[in-house]
Amino acid sequence: MKLKYSLVFCDYDDTLTLPDGTVTPRTLSAIKAYRAAGGNFVVNTGRSYASVKKLLPRLYGEPEPKVPVICYQGGLTVGDNGEILRRVPMNGADIIRLAEEAENRGIMCQTYSGERMFISRMTDEARVYSSITDCSYDVVGDLPGFMKKYEGDFDKLLMIAPHERVVALKSEFAKRKEYPDFKFVFSRPTYLEAIPRESGKDSALRFLAVKLGIDISDVAAFGDSNNDTDMLRAAGFGIAVGNAREECKAAADFVCEPNTSDGLAKMLESFIV
């Protein structure tokens, strides 16, 4: 039994999952078969490690799966033994300035440090995000003020706004000279994320491939949104699921069937020859 690609990186939300957040039985079976054939299947997500750890047992069919994981849009890479292999924290002064500017504009922000998440106030948007990611928050009141006193590093800043505003903000911030160390991506239509420029799912893909001794030509990647485009371009074979945004499809080498038709599972099955 051989594999067309021995290392697969996969976004989680809306790529692995259905609209209701579940993973189909065929997808779970395909992941199991791919790994049994010797493949490395790695979740590459914007979620926090605290969130992803809760998903891994069902996804891999093991109580405590020994697998590497990439979180925070590539800012955190954790090894199969739980050891942090790579962490790219934000520029502290700049992320505080950005959070202050966004909150002054009435944009809901939340920030992350390790496995902790902080928000200024609980809102309907924060409740939705908490429900999606199955994570709790520390409500801190004045978020920028809290960040100025916080002694740790920050991993990313998430800004929540209507889609049209998210698109406009992404374009605006990308051109601003005040934030040279950041890049801006959106993972869902209403989520704009600021992450370190040297981070990103593509950067983490390259890092882990080298760590595992696997050539990029032997790497495949699946995604569905703006934050996945660079990852698909970096992989030897980039695949957008059929339900992906158009810019993600344009970045891919191939577009498979949508998540509702087990497109990812069918592709994984085809990798085993």
Structure description:
- The protein is of the alpha/beta class and 273 residues long.
- Helix content is 37%, strand content 22%.
- It has 10 helices and 14 strands.
- The protein has helices at 25-36, 49-60, 92-104, 124-133, 143-149, 163-175, 201-212, 229-234, 246-251, 263-271; strands spanning 7-10, 40-44, 69-71, 76-78, 84-87, 108-113, 116-119, 138-139, 156-160, 182-188, 191-196, 219-223, 237-240, 254-255.
- A hairpin with a 4-residue loop joins strand 3 (69-71) and strand 4 (76-78).
- The mean pLDDT is 92.
Q: Report the principal-axis shape.
A: globular
In N-to-C order, the SSE pattern is EHEHEEEHEEHEHEHEEHEHEHEH
Oligomer: single chain
β-strand number: 14
Number of helices, where a helix is a run of at least 4 consecutive DSSP H or I residues: 10
Structural class call reads alpha/beta
CA-to-CA gap between the ends?
A: 6 Å
Query: What is the rounded Rg?
Result: 18 Å
The share of residues in helices is: 25-40%
Trace the largest sheet across and list its strands: 5-4-3-2-1-12-13-14
Report low-confidence residues grouped into runs of 5 or more. none
- How many strands, what sense, and barrel or not for the largest sheet? 8 strands, mixed
Strand content: 15-25%
Mean pLDDT over the residues: 92
Write the layout of secondary structure elements.
Layout: E1 7-10, H1 25-36, E2 40-44, H2 49-60, E3 69-71, E4 76-78, E5 84-87, H3 92-104, E6 108-113, E7 116-119, H4 124-133, E8 138-139, H5 143-149, E9 156-160, H6 163-175, E10 182-188, E11 191-196, H7 201-212, E12 219-223, H8 229-234, E13 237-240, H9 246-251, E14 254-255, H10 263-271
Parallel strand pairs: 1-2, 1-12, 2-3, 7-8, 12-13, 13-14
Antiparallel strand pairs: 3-4, 4-5, 6-7, 6-9, 9-11, 10-11
Helix pairs in contact: 1-10, 3-5
